[in-house]
Amino acid sequence: MDFGTQIKKLRSSRKLTQEQLAQKLNVSRQTISSWENNRNLPDLEMVVRIAKIFTLSLDQLILGDPTMATKLVKDGSEMRKIKFTLYTTIIMILAGIGCFLLSSIIGSTIDANGMLHEPFFLIPIGYLFLLIGMICGLVHLFFRFHK
Known about the structure:
Layout: H1 3-13, H2 18-25, H3 29-36, H4 44-53, H5 58-62, H6 66-106, E1 109-110, E2 116-117, H7 122-145
Antiparallel strand pairs: 1-2
């Protein structure tokens, strides 16, 4: 049985209107209608809330419809990608800042022979980390708002 038919059957068996179910889930009546007509599918958080309202296991609610199971797997995969880009962004920016701080802490010295010693390589590496961090941040924003 597809997810829309299953939701409609569960709602009807509890003698709930679309409006009443929508209020319980904090969504619009149109959202319930689009689920029942298989125009859209809820995300995992909403599926958990639906299962609680109808006192069903997630297996009973999800595994009855292969489309729903596929959608939830895809949503999980997208979330992992988003988290990965966010963590990469933070790590790269912190590494860039760390390079600049380390460069300023180490500083430059002149030895007895008049030779200048400085950690010159830390500055371009710091800029590289910042650039990579900004690119990852833009990718993260793209994935987050491109739905």
